[in-house]
Amino acid sequence: MTLEQLRIFLAVAERQHVTRAAEALNLTQSAVSAAISALEARHGVRFFDRIGRRIVLTDTGAAFMTEARAVLDRAETAEMVLEDLAREPRGRLRVHSSQTVASYWLPPRLVALREMHPGIELRLTVSNTTQVADAVQEGGADLGLVEGAVSHGDLHRQVVARDRLVLIMAATHPWAGRETVPVAELTTQSWILREPGSGTRSEFEVWLTEQGLSVAALPVALELPSNEAVLSAVASSRCLAALSQRAVARPEASGWIITQPLTGAERPFALLTNPRRYRTRAVQALIDILTDEGFVTGLP
Predict the structure, then answer these.
(1) Helix, strand, or coil here: 229?
(2) What domain range is 26 assigned to?
(3) Domain count, the chain
(4) First and final CA of the chain: distance in angstroms?
(5) Residues paired with 145 in a beta bridge
(6) Threshold 0.70, pTM exceeds
């Protein structure tokens, strides 16, 4: 039994006329008769009595009308629900983000998504750039946000914001009074770095290369897995570090660390998507917010 057969049965039963039902359904008379005959034959019943050139509902046909109409009503309701779901984004949305983006740029945009589309269930995972790219590549994330370069050539990468790395040191560091530090002197101090695979680390390595240096030339005291850990270690030592200017805004304002510019150390925040995977309305809703240049927050 199909929904189409039920629609044909009801059209005939309501009109008690095959030709008029066929005209209403925009079908041929033979197609309507065949559908009714197939339904009757399959279930061993008779819906209509043929009396001369007229048809009349049998008791079976009359009883079945109620059930057929109920089934079609439910089908129409389900169709309306699907149309509503299609208009309003909802469902699960898995976002993976590197730490700096997740901590300092992404939160107000996720709040905006929630306010605009409360039917979306959001799951945010924070990891380093390499892990984010892997998750998008393998299907564990619907989209990713990173601040470092990625080597996954088949992922689509779209720049959504800009950031800058700065040199940081404790307020008690001997260089704290300087306005700038010559690049050549960077190798004379101990360093605390983010872990390999983080966007901050990879962008700092790129900047060092552009200056004719490398991480191997720096006396590295520690490698730590979060911006907060790096900040805490720098504040209690004479080590240097390089972090996002977004990550150090509040510690700098409180006076317990000093920042100095790293000329040319700019980097993008990028959106990663997998072009081979279906883009749901929930994914598109977040992409629209992330790529909205007019989005305004109280954060940098």
Answers:
(1) helix
(2) 3-87
(3) 2
(4) 61
(5) 97, 271
(6) no
